[in-house]
Amino acid sequence: MVKSPMKKDVYRKNFEERQDWYQKAQKDSFRLKYHIQPPMGWLNDPNGLCQKDGVYHIYFQYCPFYPELGSIFWGHMTTKDFLHYEEHEPALYSDTKWDCNGPYSGSAYQENGMIYFFYTGNVRYEGDYNYVTDGREQNTILVTSEDGFAFSGKQLLMKNEDYPADMSRHVRDPQVFRENDRYFMIQGARSIQDEGSILLFESEDLIHWSYKLRFQPGKPFGYMWECPNYLKIGERKFLFTCPQGVPRDDYEFANVYQCGWFSLDYDFKGEDYRLGEFHSLDRGFDFYAPQVFQDEAGRWILLGWMAIPDSGYEEPTLAGGWIHALTIPRELYVNEAGLLCQRPLKELEGLRKTAVKGTLREGLNRETSPCFELKILMDKAAGEFALKLRESAVLTYRDGVLRLDVTGCGSGRTVRRLKVEELWKLQIFSDTSSLEIFVNDGADVFTTRVYDSMEDLRISLEAVELFGDWEYYSFE
Length: 476
Ligand code: FRU
Description:
six-stranded antiparallel sheet; mainly beta; binds beta-D-fructofuranose
């Protein structure tokens, strides 16, 4: 994507001139009904997620005039209930010398009524550079806000020279948190030896930061880690990140870039820490750069980018003037096996319009509109089945393998598989052009875009040895 600077007044002028484009995007037939999507143009990572005085602020990497003009902004939406969203003017622009090629991803930290946004100011030099070890600045920038709408001036906190000497020019996506009465910041990184890691910095005042250590597994795992997140549920600590450059291993790491979590054993004092195994957060085709935050009720909520960079799929929405979306909001919890799981946020029950329920013994075969939720709860672990979900998306379970086939409607997406020894629950969210399939209460999830004709949408189940109940909710 081309990146050129754009200040607020230039954005406004361009936006005014492109009202027809905006209207076209709003009316596209693949437009999602209950997901965050760009008002027009391009969207990628969720940024700065927070809740302030009851209002959830969702910022995102936003390139409204893509592909015509490549400037990136922090787009901005708010919601009080995750059912109704309000669209706002972009929050951050590329208007300083520290972020002139885009305010890249970052996150929010709140204290004493103030929101502190930390993000990466991207600067890309013109010239003959490789842009890995040269030609690029990755500046760590702070802006503050009391309400999520009005922002302070930008303050440069760290630049290339402040990162460890063996880092390439790829250090970005800060997240800040507090432990042991001190502030910590993590950043995604690529070293000059092409090893991905999460860098940890510490501070006493949120302004002055010093490097402490890097989180890395025993052996190298990819060349770059993007978008790190730290979270703590009870006493369990976790690190999320998006490693790039991990080779495919049979069913594992099937996408071009990965996204997952490690459990973290660390007291944020000395140098000793232990990372658990890497667990992929998603098994579908379209999930990357998730961000987590704790809301005012203490829930850990995740929103992800429903796409993967460089995936090479065709995106039919581009003809409609827009591309990509965020996932539905999901609440994180730790299950009995100690796994970090995702379940759809409770608020989404508010989408349900009509309900139909039945038993699996009686079967399941019905027409559907594109926007629905389907829950299948099995009395005992599932035997074999094939579940057709829309026009041509099919989920099958056989020999302990759950297989999603979207070849017929995936615009280049084909098949993904997951080993599931005991399958007892499925919860499926379908929107106009997306599917999110929660397996065993979110121990695994398949997230994917689908582009079927929407003319002959049907849910049908063929099963051997499947006992339990289903619930279908239409959202329209
Ligand atoms: C992840 C990412 C981030 C970066 C942003 C730029 O998708 O590459 O690392 O900050 O997107 O848009």
